[in-house]
Amino acid sequence: MKRSVRVLLLSLVVLSIAVTAAFAAPILRMATTTSTDNTGLLDALAPEFLKDTGIELQWVSVGTGKALELGKNLDVDVLLVHAPDLEKQFVEDGYGVNRREVMYNDFVIIGPASDPAKTMGKTVKDAFIAIAGKKANFASRGDNSGTHAMEIDLWKRSGIEQPEKESWYIQTGQGMLNTINIAAEREGYTLTDRGTFIKYEDNHKGNPPLVILVEGDDVLFNQYSVIAVNPVRGDHLRYDLALKFSDWMRSDKVQKMIGNFTLLGKPLFVPNAK
Questions:
Q1: What is the pLDDT of residues 201-226, one digit of tens each?
Q2: Do 96 and 133 fall into the same domain?
Q3: 203 and 128 both lie in a single domain
Q4: 3-state SS record for the chain
Q5: In whole angstroms, what is the distance from residue 185 CA to residue 41 CA?
Q6: Cα angle vertex 104, ends 70, 69, to 5°?
């Protein structure tokens, strides 16, 4: 009798495991930038994606350069990134397919309100020239992220060789919020996307140590796109789930959610799916 009961209980446990596995949500693995994670946007979107599609979104937030490497290594199924030139090369090299634009914000130069380099209201070019001329502390991501790629391009546009060996140029190798905090500790400047700055501002209850000093140049436009990792690269890739995510991000519902995602009454991203 006892043996029969044990066999019955074991059978029920095995059946329960099988049923749980059968109904477990499929998992989509994504690499994305620190800005989509730090701002809380993905925390808002992921539960809705699960509810609408039955797919669980799991992500790692790194710089765009590292995200693209994860794609090349087939460690993820899809990317949400913001370095158009690097993204297009990724697709051209056969690592990604179906690059689709979904939202944007812009980059801004932030620094202490005292503005020791007198950058307030200047063009980006003149601001970078002023920072270098003053040898004012500048915190760089230094991590091949989309923000870092933009910063390098801005130094070039300003006619200045990237000051990697200068003592005032601090390469953090960290994400955006940490880099902002390091800039604040050193009473220096940094380049950030507006969404992450608003999150930083919110963390300080609207009164942050660093403030926006330079903004509005066309060159500071910051596009975010979804790219599926090319399924011919690996049989394990969930291209079907990646496409569902891409389509979902471009849907009217989600575009409205992105536009309505605010902190301190300010939008962090602007939807622009086509």
A1: 999 999 999 999 999 999 999 999 99
A2: no
A3: yes
A4: CHHHHHHHHHHHHHHHHHHHHHHCCCEEEEEECHHHHHCCHHHHHHHHHHHHHCCEEEEEECCHHHHHHHHHCCCCCEEEECCHHHHHHHHHCCCEEEEEEEEEEEEEEEEECCCCCCCCCCCHHHHHHHHHHHCCCEEECCCCCHHHHHHHHHHHHCCCCCCCCCCCEEECCCCHHHHHHHHHHCCCEEEEEHHHHHHHHHHCCCCCCEEEEECCCHHHEEEEEEEEECHHHCCCCCHHHHHHHHHHHCCHHHHHHHHHCEECCEECCEECCC
A5: 27
A6: 10
The two tokens of residue 10 are 């074991």
Distance between CA atoms of residues 171 and 78, nearest Å: 28
> How many CB atoms are closer than 10 A to CB 32?
25
Match 């060996």 to its residue by tokens.
165
Q: Which of 77, 69, 92 is nearest to 145 (CA)?
A: 69
- Is 8 inside any structural domain? no
Q: Would you say how long the chain is, in residues?
A: 274
| 150, 92: one domain | no
Is pLDDT at 15 greater than 90 in this prediction? no
| Burial category of 71 from C-beta neighbours within 10 Å (exposed 0-12, middle 13-18, buried 19 and up) | buried
The overall pTM is greater than 0.85? yes
> Are 94 and 227 in the same domain?
yes
